[in-house]
Design goal:
The protein is built from 7 helices and 5 strands; from the N terminus they run E-H-H-E-H-H-E-H-H-E-H-E. By secondary structure, the chain is mainly α. It has a single domain (5-121), classed as 3-Layer(aba) Sandwich (Rossmann fold), CATH 3.40.50.1010. The strands form 2 sheets. A 3-stranded parallel beta sheet has the order 1-4-5. It has a two-stranded parallel ribbon with strand order 2-3. Strand 4 (103-105), helix 7 and strand 5 form a beta-alpha-beta unit. Helix 5 packs across helix 6.
């Protein structure tokens, strides 16, 4: 069975800004866009974005499957914060990936590398 992926905010920005290497961009184009509600919040709250940039971000969000905050994600995020002392948005994204059996696509490997059982891929190194 092919792995399913959840896209971290930094990868969404890099993809939309054409900052991924060709192999990373090709990889992303071939997957279903899946994001956490946190990624939507981070993308759409960009205060310095021009209208054209916000339209691109909104279109990406609209084309993505979004995972909301469920009780199981909340409980897992709390446990991750206690265990690994990570930021709340990172804990929610990691918890979403773990609860739903997804591999996380992120450029920030240091934020997630120590989390047990979390599968992480950096599309910059794909």
């Amino acid at each position: 069975m092919e792995p399913e992926y959840i896209i971290d905010t930094n990868v969404a920005i890099d993809y939309l800004d054409n900052k991924l290497p060709d192999i990373g961009s090709s990889f992303i184009v071939g997957i279903t866009f899946q994001i956490s509600v946190i990624t939507r919040m981070e993308l759409l709250s960009w205060t310095n974005a021009a209208d054209a940039q916000l339209k691109v971000l909104q279109q990406f969000v609209n084309e993505s499957f979004e995972y909301s905050l469920t009780e199981s994600v909340i409980v897992k995020a709390i446990a991750l914060r206690k265990t690994y002392k990570i930021k709340l948005p990172d804990a929610i994204i990691a918890a979403t990936a773990l609860v739903h059996g997804l591999t996380l696509l992120t450029r920030n490997m240091m934020d997630f590398h120590k989390i047990k059982d979390l599968l992480v891929v950096n599309p910059h190194e794909k």
